[in-house]
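Below is a complete specimen:
___
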Amino acid sequence: MVAINIQPEYGYVVLTAVGTCFLGTWHGMRCGGFRKAAGLGYPTPYADSAMMNAASAEQKHKLYLFNCAQRAHGNYLENHYVALTALLVGGLRYPLLSSAFGLVWSLGRIVYAVGYTSPTKENGKGRLAGAFFWLAQLGLLVNAGLTGYNLAF
C-alpha cells in the first residue's frame, strides 16, 4: 500500500486546473462572438464549402474566422483532458512544477486561439505562435509519468 501525502502546494494545482476549465468557457464565448459576426445559427458547427462559395468576400472572411475559432476550440477540447489529467496526477508529487507547466499550457492555449483567429494570417497560421503549449503538455506528461514511477517503485 502506498500512502500519498498531499502537500499544501497542491492547492496551486487545483487552482490551475480550475483555470483551465474557465479557459474552455472563454473559448466557447469567443466562438459565440465569431458565430454572431458570421450570422450562423445553431446548430451549424462549421461554415461548409457551399456557404463559403455563396458568400460575399466580406462574409466569406467572417465565416472563415468562425471556422478558425471553432477549430481552435476543438483543438483545446482534444487536448484539455490530457493536460488536466497529467496536471492533477503530476501535482501529487511535484505540485509547483505541475502548476507551472499548467500555467504555461494555458497561456499557450490563449496565444494559439487568438493567433488562429488572426484576420491577417492565412490558413490559421497565426496559431503557431501558441504552439509552445505542446512543450508544456509534454512537461505535464513527463511529470505525471515520474509521479507514477515514484509511486510504483
The domain at 9-152 is CATH 1.20.120.550 (Four Helix Bundle (Hemerythrin (Met), subunit A)). The radius of gyration is 19 Å.
